[in-house]
Write a structure and sequence with these properties.
The chain is an all-alpha fold and 177 residues long. The protein has two domains: 92 residues; 84 residues, no CATH class. Helix content is 75%, strand content 0%. It has eight helices and no strands. Helix 2 packs antiparallel against helix 3. The radius of gyration is 20 Å and the shape is globular. The mean pLDDT is 80. Keywords: Membrane, Transmembrane, Transmembrane helix.
Length: 177
Amino acid sequence: SVFLIGTVVGDFFFEFNKIKNQEERKRAIKYEFIKISLLIGIILMIFGAIFSFLDFLFHGTFSSMIYSIGTVLVLLSILLYIEEFEVVKTKKSYRFFYYFSFYSFTIYLAHNPLYFLFFGQLNVLTIWIAIVGVFIFLTLLLKGVHKKWGRYASLKVLISILSSKLANKLEERYLSL
């Protein structure tokens, strides 16, 4: 669910980056994203904690998922506020995240084999080594795939092209009647 939320959040950021006026952009981010996602995140955290109380502590339960999504939204809002309003001065370089945002749907669908690759082999400590290793490997893989195939390796782009062609075929068929 976090990957799907990431896709939606990425679309918001894409729209915000179209705004050229910095003051208008900051206002849009503050009022249209940070305040709303912070409010929704807090509501989800409270609901997740109250709904079936103490179940939110156990991974995989409904209340745990709702609580986790709320936590992600709250943390995202806080970190975005810190960066955009320069509470902490940061050197901005987003090229690293470009590949993960561009191929987010592809990663979401392709990450499932990792479950079987590491099933029953990792403990509390070794999982962090695996996470860092897989993260580095995916970064290098996505960078290479992007250089070789570009946008045509993204499932979102392929679905968009396919749906456009299908719509054109249906329109041609409809107009020929």
